[in-house]
Amino acid sequence: MSPGQGCQVGGRFSRCANQASETCQYCGRAFCAAHTGFTEDHEAVCSRKPCVAKRRDLDAHLAYRTRVLQRNRAGLCGIEACDPHPPFECSLCQGRFCGRHLTERLYPFRTGMVSIDRPVSICVHCWERRGIWRSR
């Protein structure tokens, strides 16, 4: 963000006139205090719906990973009320799951400007969150 830069939140004809104070870590746009979705330490997220959704998803995903890893340490599948000794690992969250809770799928990975579908073993949670993080 350059000194004196204006807030970049809003549409082409409804741009905010306030001075920007942060740069969004998700969309890269400068934003003012009135358009702050979240700020803490070095993290800054604007109030745009896609950016707020990403921040909420990240919080939920970290809580999910913590629960899965706690179950895994006890030798259990990452899904509640499931079998012990899970033999398979999710390619994205590294949680361990039984065969019923992990699926082989093609998952889109970005390399520069190109999206490439690669085969992964993936849990339902990681599969369902892909839409939030996919660029539009």
Descriptive report:
The chain is of the alpha+beta class and 136 residues long. Helices cover 25% and strands 26% of the residues. It has 3 helices and 8 strands; from the N terminus they run ββββαββββαα. The strands form 4 sheets. A two-stranded antiparallel ribbon has the order 1-2. It has a two-stranded antiparallel ribbon with strand order 3-4. Strands 5-6 form a two-stranded antiparallel sheet. The radius of gyration is 19 Å and the shape is elongated. The chain starts with 21 loop residues before the first strand and ends with a helix. The model has no long low-confidence stretch (mean pLDDT 88).
Pattern of helices and strands: EEEEHEEEEHH
Strand residue percentage = 25-35%
Strand order of the largest sheet: 1-2
> Helix segment count?
3
What general outline do the C-alpha atoms trace? elongated
Oligomer: single chain
- State the end-to-end CA separation: 23 Å
Look at the structure and give the mean pLDDT.
88
Whole-angstrom Rg: 19 Å
Summarize the main sheet.
2 strands, antiparallel
Low-confidence stretches: none
What's the count of strands? 8
Helix content: 25-40%
Structural class: alpha+beta
